[in-house]
Amino acid sequence: MIYGILTFFSILAAVNAGCDNACSGHGACNGGFCECFDNWGMGLSMDNGDCSDRICPFEFAWVDTPDKEGRRHKYAECANRGICDRSSGECECFEGYEGKACARTTCPNDCSGHGNCEYIQDLGYMAVTYDYRHHEFTQDLTTFDYKAWDTEKTRACVCDPEWADNDCSKRLCPYGTDMQDLRDNQDKALRFQTQRIAIFFRKELIPEVAGTPANVKTPIDGSSFALTFKSKLNETFTTVPIVLDTGLGTFGTSRHGRPMAVADQVRAALRNLPNGVIDDVNVKGELLDYVADNGGDDNWLYVFNVSFVGDNVQGPQQMLTVEDFKCGDGCFPKVSGLQNLHNSFYNNVTEFEKADLNSFECGRRGKCDYSSGLCECFEGFTGQACGTSTSLI
User: In this structure, what are the phi and psi dihedrals at residue 164, rounded to the nearest 5 degrees?
Assistant: First the structure.
């Protein structure tokens, strides 16, 4: 009996000795090899070993080596942007990266308290290439779904109004034209930047004019939209609703008169934006027949030419944005939107005419004090944007 007991314990000791360190308490011994519990292994190779080391979280690698089929950004421990602390199972991320598995970038200086740190998929228009990959006629200033591998990884600062730079640490100074930058031909009339807002409607939405009873509205009439203007100081303003009226439901000259009436709405809405950000603007409206270059269906083309003629909007301005989605109760501005026309509507905003005037920080006749947002004008110039000469010739 004593011999049997000794034999049993000898076999038991041999079995336990078959797994190194008894799998460190983090695995099961099977045939002399450890089968580690989840997130346990050993060393950089993460082999089972004695299950003494923690494995850190995995994420899409920021940089890695593609395989023979060209696949890249595979899952990697700490996303290849940190060192795994094998005692705790947590990533020690390199500078500029943070989060579980170092999955996302940090924003420089936490945007200095003057902006928000946002993912690339949430950034504004023209921030990513996807904003340029859309139908030739739908070049409206809206962002498109960003679906690349770093959708929820790459981040950047979106600065508050009047703040700029990568970390939103600098105050913006006023912009104005360089008063000494003369035009080549002073005899020609001064040209102002004109942006063209083009709204396309398929003709099947609107009955033929000749067969339309007087005062009958088309499906487009009464639809409303708004315009958003972003100043050179990173300020964003949105107008009150603008109501469309084609005039196609009546006879006479209304087809030409109604667009001008809507153009007056556009002008008033832009001029009434807060702080006199647009002190003056001219708007011309037209309703035109339009045939696509590719020979597609005929359309009505509703055009508004917006010319920036005020002193506060000298030179080229950022492109206007058409707010064409429905904005209902509790939303500003409350508009019915134009998207209810079921893919029979699209719009774009383009530069129709370039300005003779330019737009420079401090009018290119001074330096910006980024701590105060004030221009330090060169000798002989003064004014908010150094646009006034104090020298006599």
Answer: -155, -175
Mean pLDDT value across the chain: 82
Position 49, amino acid: G
Residues 6+ apart with CB under 8 A from 110: 117
Distance CA 23, CA 41 (A): 10
| Residues contacting residue 34 through CB under 8 Å, at least 6 positions apart | 19, 20, 23, 27, 28, 48, 49, 50, 51
Prior bond to 207 cis, omega within 30?
A: no
DSSP 216: P
8 A C-beta contact, residue 206 and residue 217: no
DSSP secondary structure letters along 89-120: TEEEEPTTEESGGG-EEPPGGGGGGSEEEEEG
Averaged pLDDT for residues 226-236: 93
**Half-sphere CA count of 118, side-chain side, radius 13 A:** 15
Amino acid at the residue 35: E
Where are the domains positioned within the chain? Answer: 17-93, 109-171, 194-353
Type of residue at 24: S
135 has a pLDDT exceeding 70: no
Q: What is the pLDDT of residues 50-91, one digit of tens each?
A: 999 999 999 999 999 988 888 899 999 999 999 999 999 999
Q: For residue 217, what pLDDT band results from cuts at 50, 70 and 90?
A: low
* Length of the chain in terms of residues written: 393
Q: 10 Å Cβ neighbour count for 82?
A: 24
DSSP 184: S
Full-model pTM: 0.72
